[in-house]
Amino acid sequence: MAESPGISSHTSELELGLDTGLFTEASSRRAPNGTQSLTRTLAILRALAESAMSGRPYLTLGALARTVGLAKSTVHRLLAGLHAHGLVARDDHGGYAIGSAFIGLGRIAEEVHAVPPAGARAAGSHTERDEYSTERAALASWHTS
């Protein structure tokens, strides 16, 4: 299994903050009034994050629809909105992945929550690799704050 940079196959959902209940399968819970689209969108983001963690950064529309238990037309509509804001990326083969806008959001979250870079915490130094790993962890756990 190929690993995504900064996220190993040994990284747990707990470490990434994916087990908090914020990301749930879209069809598994009834959303409170007015939040169905948000719940479905978060389920799509969770599916993309979990796929990336397992070494498959891009998923097709059909695979996403099956994973979250929604119609392809619904998933496509939600992906279009996410893509318009950089929260989802597309490849040349129609696959979808977590978008680069999360990089900036992760950096902001680090500053807001005064999270020191991983290297600074562990060894009192800061390297480019530590910065990349910290960004990946922040992106994966953006919803826990």
Automatic annotation (TrEMBL):
Region annotation (Disordered) ranges: 119-145
One Pfam match: HTH_IclR
Residue ranges the record marks as coiled coil: none
Transmembrane segments: none
Location of the HTH iclR-type domain: 35-100
Cross-referenced InterPro entries: HTH_MetabolicPath_Reg, Tscrpt_reg_IclR_N, WH-like_DNA-bd_sf, WH_DNA-bd_sf
Domain of life (superkingdom): Bacteria
Protein name: HTH iclR-type domain-containing protein
